[in-house]
Design goal:
single chain, alpha/beta, TIM Barrel, four-stranded parallel sheet, four-stranded mixed sheet, 8 helices, 16% strand
Length: 258
């Protein structure tokens, strides 16, 4: 296993935000213009020769590993995949299966095309519940299983990777993913320490917004600034737990992807 694994989380990359992904207030900060994403990628690649396929883990040695991930399954994934291919990079695309074939989202043929070009297709739940951790254990299982089965039918291969929708998770989120056969689970925790729980390899990610500065992207690429990002997540968790009622109202109103 690499001593450090730096995973970046993006959503939509498009110059026409209304053409791809979830069309809601909470998604707006995660809509990146193509030039913005390419600039981020250029900064990141100053420190890496390539991005890695998580399914090739575990690895050994002291090299820091770069992983690029993209959540939701918006149709801009087709263009993102092409940008990565031009740089000989691999991406992980996590699909919300209830949205497959709907306007602004990938269809089955596009999903197969992205996979055929060497990228990883993974589960992002079936319905994208905004607060995943608040689901019952049975509901968590159903979200993972339904998503996984739909993708496996499309791809005609086993799906072993997933990312947590909504960003809020607990131990049962990991346990339920492992129960349905997920082996690699990406969270929204800003952390480069990889750990194994319930047979699942769990990887944290940093998530640039369209307002994230180039200097912050560069710092994340070398494994710095994670403490500050974790403090921000911890503050959000404090609000979620202590002001649960109001937090749910906010999430429901904005339906934010993180």
């Amino acid at each position: 296993m690499s001593s450090k694994t730096i995973s970046f989380l993006y959503h939509e990359v498009t110059d026409n935000p209304e053409s791809s992904g979830f069309q809601r207030t909470g998604a707006l900060p995660y809509q990146h213009k193509v030039s913005h994403f390419k600039s981020d990628l250029k900064l990141i690649l100053k420190h890496f020769n390539s991005s890695e396929d998580v399914t090739t883990f575990p690895k050994t040695g002291n090299k820091t590993t770069l992983i690029l991930t993209f959540d939701d399954g918006g149709v801009s994934a087709v263009d993102i995949a092409e940008i990565l291919e031009n740089k000989k990079l691999v991406g992980h695309f996590f699909v919300t299966t209830s949205m497959i074939g709907k306007p602004t989202f990938l269809n089955a043929e596009q999903i197969r095309g992205i996979r055929k070009n060497g990228h990883i297709i993974g589960a992002h739940s079936h319905n994208h519940p905004s607060i995943f951790r608040d689901l019952s254990y049975c509901e968590k299982i159903n979200e993972w299983r339904q998503c996984k089965e739909i993708l496996e039918k499309i791809l005609n291969e086993e799906v072993t990777t997933a990312s947590v929708p909504g960003g809020d998770m607990d131990l049962d989120t990991i346990r339920s993913a492992g129960e349905v056969g997920i082996k690699f689970l990406f969270t929204s925790e800003p952390n480069f320490t990889v750990y194994k729980k319930f047979g699942v390899l769990v990887l944290g990610r940093v998530c640039p917004k369209n307002t994230t500065s180039p200097s912050e992207i560069s710092r994340w690429a070398i494994g710095k600034g994670f403490i500050r990002a974790r403090l921000f997540r911890a503050a959000k968790e404090f609000i979620r737990v202590r002001l649960k009622f109001f937090y749910k109202i906010y999430v429901k109103k904005n339906d934010a992807p993180l």
